[in-house]
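Let us practice reading a record.
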Amino acid sequence: MNETLKQRWLALGLLGLVLLLIIFIVFVPLLSMGWEYHEQKQDLTFRLQRARQIVARKDSVIANIASIKKQYQEQNYFSTRDTEALASADLQKLIKSAISQTGGQLTSTQVLPQISDSGFNRVTVKVRMSGDIETLRAVLHEIESSPQIMLIDQIDIRPVRGKRNRKTRKIEPSNKLNINFQVAGFMRKKDE
């Protein structure tokens, strides 16, 4: 009986070992795969909720974009004119007004060809004027303080030679300057 009991226990042990092997070979990978699927499901559910929240805010984002565009247009950073000729005429008028208000003398203005870049047309005017250093400072300040964005480029300042004194035959110093510079303003392209 001892021998049969040992064989039974051995058979039961082998059966248990086979059952454990089946559990580790079949059920553990199945449980592991089920856990991975559960985690993927949780991740996808989180992403779906986040996407729904983003879609729910779509109307407020569109309203904010419209509000920003409206503020942007009201700030007049760029010329609102339809053509470059009108934009350059406005720029020339602003320059002429700035020079005359500060006591300078406008010699000439010349519109240069436009440059298109990054959704904007650059309207440039070449300016020749004369005046003293305070006049130049005031003109540059007037242009800089304009609500429109403008760039001053290629500034060239030359002193005006003084007049010769008839009695002393010496050249008297002059505080007058001949000033050349370019002023560039911007306007949106028509298709935008």
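A brief commentary: Strands lie at 105-117, 120-131, 150-159, 177-188.
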